[in-house]
Design goal:
By secondary structure, this protein is mainly α. Helices cover 80% and strands 0% of the residues.
Length: 229
């Protein structure tokens, strides 16, 4: 039992540390709110399980497409987005563009970690290595993408905030649904699509990290060059 819990949570903690430390140290987010976001994400597993079980009992939305894009992609990403928006976005003042990424990753990895523990209890600890490589890291990247758009929204002009908020839900939903659809259709052909798909997610995620740090560097430079009145 302890081994399953440790193996289930360890990849999420490691990835959260990785993304937290990728921030250029202009002003790092305090660890307390980040841990709180991780816990909120972990708590989301239980309502998701109840809702998914209810739909399964009623035999509703059980096609591979519905399961992938609605019961997993939309449901999970919407709840993570909801938690992000109402516990972080409207309450915490972001100091730089990267803050959204930190909180998005924290919420997603909290969810992925508890989901991973339950999976290892059900199917055995021997599944831990591929769960860390694919599902857990994918959740982290969905959260990274969500947080990068919400981070942009924090620093956008008023008339563009809605665009970034909408993208922060829509893009992770599409990526998550696509990933789960590949999982549900897994065979000798699609298994070779999943790894490139996750590598593409990593490429997008690392580019967004670079863009966030670059945008913050430009913002700091602009502030330094502003004349003192």
């Amino acid at each position: 039992m302890l081994a399953a819990i440790t193996a289930g949570i360890a990849p999420g903690i490691a990835l959260l540390c990785f993304f937290y430390l990728k921030q250029h140290q202009y002003e790092s987010e305090p660890i307390g709110p980040v841990v709180r976001s991780f816990v909120f994400g972990a708590m989301l597993v239980f309502p998701v399980m109840v809702i998914q079980h209810g739909f399964e009992v009623e035999n509703f939305l059980q096609s591979p497409f519905s399961q992938a894009f609605i019961m997993s992609g939309l449901l999970e990403e919407f709840l993570k987005w909801f938690i992000f928006y109402f516990t972080v976005y409207i309450h915490i003042e972001f100091s730089d563009f990267y803050d959204g990424i930190v909180y998005g990753v924290a919420i997603s990895l909290g969810f992925a970690s508890i989901e991973n523990v339950f999976y290892l209890f059900a199917f055995g600890i021997q599944e831990a290595w591929w769960r860390a490589l694919l599902p857990v890291s994918s959740h982290a990247l969905f959260g990274l993408i969500m947080g990068s758009y919400l981070g942009r929204g924090k620093f956008s002009l008023q008339n563009k905030i809605g665009k970034w908020i909408a993208l922060s839900l829509f893009i992770p939903f599409i990526f998550h649904g696509t990933y789960n659809f590949l999982v549900l259709q897994v065979n000798s052909n699609t298994i070779y699509l999943m790894i490139p798909f996750v590598l593409i997610l990593w490429f997008i995620g690392l580019r967004k990290i670079k863009a966030a740090n670059h945008n913050q560097a430009e913002l700091m430079q602009t502030k330094e060059n502003m004349p003192i009145s």
